Amino acid sequence: MSNELTLQQERAIEFHRLHSGENPLILVNAWDAASARLIEQSGSPAIATTSAGLAWSLGYPDGEQMNKHELIQVCERICRVVTVPVSVDIERGFGRTPAEVCETVRALIDSGVVGVNIEDGFGSGMTELIPPDILAERISAIRVVAEEAGIKFFINARTDTYFAPAGDPVARYNETVRRAGIYIEAGADGIFVPGLESIEEIERMSREVVRPLNIYAGYAGLPPVAALGRAGVRRVSLGCGPFQAALALTRRIVNEVLNDGTYAAMTAEMLSAADLNKLFRRE
To answer: Where are the domains of the chain?
Structure first.
């Protein structure tokens, strides 16, 4: 067994442990090597990617529009520059079949990744969720690949039930719990429910779902981390929010210099070149 694989196994075990601590695991999602290294340097115990932010940074819309090889290349760079566990958002798996999804996962494991986020999502009409057995089959296949690699791989199963057209809120909640159970039975280690924001529903779901519950906090109005933790949440993801905020700052910089000829928005808190170079210098 190689030293690299042993280190990867340790990181995988640590990533699981981070979901069972006293406080929720907070993930400020990265979109490239620089953002990942900055997040690590700031004290984050793990790195997770944002699929939307990564796609936008490469010039694609969100939704598996980029080439999966580009996804893998970015993740290789991230794993090269950080020393903490890395999990990757692979959307619906970058593959039409479980076998193709497994090709993506094998390549990510080879790059040093210790977990993925994979979702059910919507069909071509964008109104009805894909049947849960499709994602369950992919989860089961990924679990086999991880076992073959000897990695305690973390599979975070996302369901988009709270992004579906509004209907009966009780039925929506029950469908979320039902899908969570199916994904857990297939081998999921965590359940991600973006769009879930009612603290009462969060608390109830964290009791009924027998795996760590992941909440998306990439927009205004969500309860603070402490309240989410008290409600039983074990993982809080900022998703593409940080990248959206970074682009908003870039737009302010552009508008200021083009309209006013000044640079205050850029220079107020910018990092020095020396600080950024230090991000990538290892002892």
So the answer is: 3-240
Cβ pair 108, 149 in contact under 8 A: no
Residue-wise burial string across 187-212, b where 16 or more C-beta atoms lie within 10 A, e elsewhere? bbbbbbbbebbeeebbbebbeebebb
Spatial strand order of the sheet with 47-48 comes to 25-27, 235-237, 213-216, 190-192, 154-158, 115-119, 86-89, 47-48
Tens of pLDDT, residue by residue over 85-140, are: 999 999 999 999 999 999 999 999 999 999 999 999 997 666 789 999 999 999 99
Pairwise CA distance, residues 280 & 33, whole Å: 10
- Site of tokens 């990617």: 49
Residue 122, classified by CB atoms within 10 Å of its CB into exposed (0-12), middle (13-18) or buried (19+), is: middle
Q: What is the pTM of this model?
A: 0.95
Q: Are 202 and 194 in contact (CB under 8 A)?
A: no
Place of tokens 């699929």: 51
Spelled out in words, what is the top-level CATH class assigned to the domain 3-240? alpha beta
Tokens of 168: 């009966």
